[in-house]
């Protein structure tokens, strides 16, 4: 117990515990200029305070990870189980968001109730970003899978259709995984080797180079390595 309190005090004095990643909310895109005067397109991410809600270890859970929570929930929306789980982290009525960051090794400063520092990432870091892409509803195979389609001239009767999909007598069926029309988007997308352009601690802003999947205000995950 004394070691846990010492870790909490040490993390609080250093501005929070530093992990190998963060969760942030997408704001939109902008342009900044680097030291060479070159215009760099960036995505602006808004960081809100995340608090450690649970520390997982290989002995107790089979792997090392830190569960973090954000945004207090209303009393009417939190179940008894969620309230009890997040109460020790400072959320009396539970948390709206709860996520997990895997660790290669336990973090000494990680303790329940400690805030995650935005300094977990710094300028120049290379991260992989995971977000949920925008949903586009039902789409045909040309838009969804970039099929070429048929001739555009009159009389072809084959413009934006998927074409033949069957087989011969054997196996006599359509094989699983065939690219058909269907729900387009709204899926987890991971972009690797994304550079952190700037971290503004006072403003709670993280800028990354290039576009990030997802709609505005959507939650994205940034992890080093």
How would you explain this protein's 3D organization?
This protein folds into two domains: 2-134 and 186-224, Translation factors (Elongation Factor Tu (Ef-tu), domain 3, Beta Barrel); 136-182, no CATH class. The chain has helices spanning 2-13, 58-61, 80-86, 141-145, and strands at 21-33, 39-46, 51-56, 65-72, 95-102, 126-132, 135-139, 182-185, 188-200, 205-209, 219-224. A hairpin with a 5-residue loop joins strand 1 (21-33) and strand 2. By secondary structure, it is mainly beta. It starts with a helix and ends with a strand. Strands 1-2-10-9-6-11 form a six-stranded antiparallel beta barrel. The longest helix is centred in the first third of the chain and has 12 residues, at 2-13.
What is the H-and-E element order? HEEEHEHEEEHEEEE
Q: Give the terminus-to-terminus CA distance.
A: 33 Å
Quaternary organisation: single chain
- What is the CATH architecture annotation of the largest domain? Beta Barrel
Main sheet characteristics: 6 strands, antiparallel, barrel
The CATH superfamily of the largest domain is known as Translation factors
When the domains are counted, the total is: 2
What is the number of beta strands? 11
Mean pLDDT: 91
**Side-by-side strand order of the widest sheet:** 1-2-10-9-6-11
Shape call: extended
Instruction: Classify the fold: give the CATH topology of the largest domain.
Output: Elongation Factor Tu (Ef-tu), domain 3
- The level 1 CATH classification of the largest domain is Mainly Beta
Instruction: Tell me the helix content.
Output: 10-25%
Which structural class matches the secondary elements? mainly beta
Radius of gyration in whole Å, from Cα?
A: 23 Å
In what range is the share of β-strand residues?
A: 35-45%
pLDDT < 50 stretches: 1-14
